[in-house]
Design goal:
Helix content: 25-40%
CATH architecture of the largest domain: Alpha-Beta Complex
Number of helices: 9
Shape: globular
CATH superfamily of the largest domain: Naphthalene 1,2-dioxygenase Alpha Subunit, Chain A, domain 1
CATH topology of the largest domain: Naphthalene 1,2-dioxygenase Alpha Subunit, Chain A, domain 1
CATH class of the largest domain: Alpha Beta
């Protein structure tokens, strides 16, 4: 957020605190538990959300130097992202054109990628440089057998990718501004290109991927579930919500916000007292903390709707002089809060969803981020419930 937006959000939060209110959705929202447990629903979400839409893949600092690469599985699509010698980010299906083996694993820096199965070699732009046993493959058009290209885009220090191959006559470039819509103004102001990655952790909780996102979309539970960890520092069940297309931004206040009240507006700085939680549709949460960025990305399991993979990454300011121990402490707090409190309870809730005992869950008017998120999913899927 820029300063004007910070002042506006901060004033809204102070008004809610004084009135013991919060931003409200238009109405209660009822969601079928099948949304969390149905195999048919999971397949529709994979195709319509995780294959057809641009997905946030991390900050630009995830690939800081030419030759850097990273691999991951996105809803069944093996992905290889690289930063070329020209500085551009590219994405490919991580599938050798010979027999389908992955040409890279993990992350690192490389001039070329050599398939471990038979030694076929590709450069950082996906071009097939050569094959072993040239006699056996005489006549093969190397130029027509490069790695399959996936659309990718980079702007505002953010990388987006679509897990569907580029079609003939289609551009390989994703328009990031169009993808972000009105939310792009916020991210441009955050200067995300100045945040290098400090750490990345991955877990596979026994929950539907949407529950992993739900965890961050309401402050109603903070005084209850997190009473021994973060609750003393936040004002529960009090927040602002602003939608931007299918994306959303929820802001919650730290208890320290009261210290701003006595200052004239020209001297007010809400930055240390307000946490902004961005939901990038469909599967990403970006938390703008007091002095760093936390990013949570949730991906559905390939076969089981009751499982997912969640990646948590922490990005610190490039100009920070704080020791690594400080950032490690912030990482530990986030992990303990979410992975030791939210997700374990979520696993019990997932069992309840699958038990058949209830047909629906209810999101209150005081949970507008949840209502917006699930309304957006229904809209993207073209379903009424």
């Amino acid at each position: 957020m820029d300063r004007n937006e910070q002042l506006a959000v901060g004033s809204r939060l102070l008004g809610h605190i004084d009135g013991r209110t919060t931003d409200l959705a238009d109405a209660l929202f009822r969601n079928k538990v099948d949304a969390y447990s149905s195999t048919e629903r999971a397949m529709r979400e994979r195709d319509a959300l995780f294959r057809a839409l641009p997905l946030f893949m991390g900050l630009s600092s995830r690939l800081p130097k030419p030759g850097d690469y990273v691999t991951e599985d996105v809803a069944g699509m093996p992905v290889l992202m690289t930063r070329g010698t020209d500085g551009a980010v590219r994405a490919f299906a991580n599938i050798c054109r010979h027999r389908g083996a992955p040409v890279a694993q993990g992350c690192g820096n490389a001039r070329a990628f050599v398939c471990p199965y038979h030694g076929w070699t590709y450069d950082g732009q996906g071009k097939l440089l050569g094959v072993t046993d040239k006699v056996g493959f005489a006549g093969l058009d190397l130029g027509a057998h490069g790695l399959v290209r996936l659309p990718v885009g980079e702007k505002h220090g953010m990388i987006f990718m679509r897990a569907t191959p580029v079609q003939e006559s289609e551009s390989a470039d994703i328009d990031v501004d169009t993808t972000l819509g009105a939310m792009g103004l916020d991210f441009a102001a955050l200067e995300l290109n100045t945040y290098p990655m400090f750490s990345v952790d991955r877990v596979t909780p026994r929950i539907n991927w949407k529950f992993a996102v739900d965890t961050f979309l309401e402050g109603y539970h903070i005084p209850h579930l997190h009473r021994k960890t973060i609750a003393p520092y936040f004002i529960g069940n009090c927040g602002t919500f602003d939608g931007a297309g299918r994306h959303g931004r929820m802001c919650v206040a730290r208890t320290s916000i009261d210290g701003v009240r006595t200052l004239p507006e020209s001297e007010r700085n809400f930055r240390p007292h307000v946490i902004a939680i961005y939901q990038l549709f469909p599967n990403t949460i970006i938390v703008w903390q007091v002095d760093h960025i936390e990013i949570w990305r949730a991906f559905p399991d390939r076969d089981d709707p009751g499982r997912c993979e969640v990646e948590f990454s922490l990005y610190m300011p490039a100009d920070s002089e704080r020791p690594a121990a400080y950032w490690e402490k912030n990482r530990d707090i986030a992990i303990r809060t979410v992975m030791e409190e939210d997700f374990p309870l979520g696993e019990r809730m997932q069992i309840g969803f699958e038990s058949g005992a209830t047909e629906e869950v209810i999101y209150g008017r005081n949970e507008p981020s949840l209502v917006h998120f699930h309304s957006s999913i229904r809209s993207a899927l073209g379903v009424a419930a």
